[in-house]
Amino acid sequence: MESKKEFISVPMNERNGKPKDLFFIWFAANIGILGVVYGAMIVGFQLSFLQSALAALVAALSFVLVGYISIIGKNNGITTFKLSRAAFGMKGNWIPNFLGWLNLVGWLSVNVVTGTLILNSLSNVLHMSQNHIITVICLLVFATLVLFSGLLNQDQLAKLQTFFTYVFGGLTLLILVILIPETDWHQLMTMPNGSWLTGFLPAVSIIMAGTGISWSIAGADYSAYQSPNSKNASVMNSVVLGAVIPLFVIMFVGILLSTSVPDIAVSANPIDVIGQALPSWITVIYFITAVGGLVPQCIISLKSARVNLETLNIRVSDRTSLTIHGAIMILIPIYVLFISQDFLYNFQLFLGLLGIGIASWAAVFIADYYFNRKDGYDIALLSNNGAHIVNRNGVISWFLGITIGFLFTNTDFFSGPFAKGIFKDNSLGLLLAFISSYVCFVIVQLFFNKEGHGDGTKSSAK
Fold this sequence. Notes:
InterPro entries: Pur-cyt_permease, Pur-cyt_permease_Fcy2/21/22. It comes from Bacillus chungangensis. This protein has helices at 19-28, 35-43, 49-60, 63-76, 80-88, 94-125, 132-149, 154-179, 185-189, 196-210, 212-215, 219-223, 232-257, 270-276, 283-311, 318-340, 343-373, 379-382, 392-407, 428-447. By secondary structure, it is mainly alpha-helical. The protein has one domain: Hydantoin permease (Orthogonal Bundle), CATH 1.10.4160. The two termini are 30 Å apart.
């Protein structure tokens, strides 16, 4: 590992980004055709058409959390988990930081699995024989494509994401327009209302886990490169609109398509099922579009994973970082593709479990900022050499939220003692984790921390 001086803030000569850059970064990250699967999953909670559409919109608006954290990153010119050191302390931040890294490489692996399945389907359309060798080749091709993106700097990333937005965003829209006529409108409009408590809320929470909550850990990683003169409102609007517009539209089409292609939400290869619903003349374009829509998500995950690794004081060269993440990108998909062979199940399990920890982290992070850091972060709280070792307020609030979240969650690995009734077999534990961590931090802040500065004092990060 390389020994390098730690730079807390992004150098001013690199802070020349504009809010529109954030719009294209988050738009491109949400044009993936997998959003159709999200829409079908929502309907699977036995909701009516209007309930499903509302659930999709509310879940997509979870990107307000990413927008808020992006403002914090812009105001301070510091990436997400370096800022998080103030809320948790230098050592207290290690576990949330590692969990964030795990979330990013997990998402990266999930998207590589999806990309491999898409290329596999494309090879089938091109009349190539289907076997393990072809699957391995597809995996290596997609993983190599993603790894090359790890060599991009911030300006190159913004330009590439803009390209993806226009090209693959347009192609995705074309595919969606072709899919819409497949809708069984009578069935759609006659679906009965489901339970708002046991259907609507769990549907919203599972999609939030995979969208706004999951991406919150990367919010400041990109806004830290924004010009200090960028307006907060512009940053918020660019992030939220850039993410919500494509995500909601694609999920909405997934809701419509669930009536004519009900297997989307239960298939081991949902992308292939969607392809079968299209006319044969456009299937090749569809699969290319699907691959193109996944690459931007992988780029963001790979870049932020590298940032998180450095924040954990694991400072390695670009080549070593790409080697580490490349190995993970190959090994996890190999397990999913050749051993587990149940993509969607592992996908939902992954979202639910990691989402609890990330939700609790996000609650503590924004609560700490609101109460203690609005005037800026004290660099001493963010430095490796600082005395700010553990922020008990943040760590206790985070741990309490996670504990409550798991107590109300059941999976194949364990069953929380309170995961019964309305909490059984859903992801409401994630929302409880977020609320519990936030409320706990507020109580500690108001009643046990009279000075209101956490474990450190406020001062400008400039």
